[in-house]
Design brief:
alpha/beta, Rossmann fold, nine-stranded mixed beta sheet, two-stranded antiparallel ribbon, 10 helices, globular, binds adenosine-5'-diphosphate, iron-sulfur, nucleotide-binding, 4 iron, 4 sulfur cluster binding, ATP hydrolysis activity, ATP binding
Length: about 270
Amino acid sequence: LGVDPLTQRIKEKEKKWKYKIAVLSGKGGVGKSTVAVNLAAALAKLGYFVGVLDADVHGPNIAKMLGVEKAEILAEKVDDHFEMIPPTADFMGQVTPIKVMSMGMMVPEDQPIIWRGALVTKALKQLLGDVKWGELDFMIIDFPPGTGDQILTVVQTIQLDAAIVVTTPQEVALLDTGKAVNMMKQMEVPYIAVVENMSYLICPHCGNKIDLFGEGGGEKLAQKEGVDFLGKVPIDLKAREASDLGIPIVLYEDTLAAKAFMEITQRFV
Ligand code: ADP
C-alpha cells in the first residue's frame, strides 16, 4: 500500500539475497572500491554467488576493476517493465560468476555524471530493482565516499546485514571514518567492521616495513567505536597493476595484499 512498483520489486528481489553488505569510507582514495572487488572476488573464489552494485555515481570504477566495463547490457521485458541482465566476471572460470552492475556501464566514460537528487535516487533504485540479480549469497554495495544521500537512499530501501568501513591509518582519514561508522550505527546496521588499507609498505629493495600513513590507526578506531577490526592490507604495487588490468589482486598473484584480503574475507564469512 502506497509503495511504488519499483520499491515493491526491490523488496521482492531483496528476499533472494542472503547477505547484503555495504562497503563505505569516510573519504575518497582510501581503497574502498579495491576492498569491495577483492571481497567479492574472494567470496566467489570460495564458491559463493556474489553480486556487486557500484552505487558510486560520481566516480564509478567497479566495472573496470572487474574487467566488464565494455560489456553490453541486455534488457528483458518482465511483465510491464524492462529488467537489465547484469554482465558477469568469472576470470576464465576461476570463480563463481560475479554479477556486476555499475553506473559506469550506463554512462559513457567521457561524460561526467552530473545527475542530482531525484535522478540519482531513481538510478540507484533501478540498479536494485530493475536488474535480474537472481539468487545471491552476497550482495556487495560499493557506496560513494562520505555520508551522503545515496547511502541514505539504499539504507532506507533495503535491510543491510553488514557495513565494512575502509580507512587508511592516517589521522584525517580516521576522523571521517568515525563519521561513517557512526552513520551505520544510527542506521542500526547489525554488523559493522573496519578494514585498514594501505597500512604499510614493504620496501622492494631492503625488505623493511614502512608505515607510510602511521601505525595502528584503524584498529584503534575500531576499538574506540566498539566495532570489529577485520585486518590490515599493505600497499602493494601488484594490486595497482592488477586493478588497472581489471583483475582483483586475490585472483592475480599471491602477494601480501592478496593474502590479507583472503584472510579478511575468511574472518568475515
Ligand atoms: P576509493 O574507492 O576509496 O576511492 P580505490 O579503491 O579506487 O579507492 O583506490 C584508489 C587507488 O589506490 C587505485 O588506483 C587503487 O588501485 C589503489 N590502491 C588501493 N588499495 C591499494 C593497495 N593496498 N595497494 C596499492 N594500491 C592500492
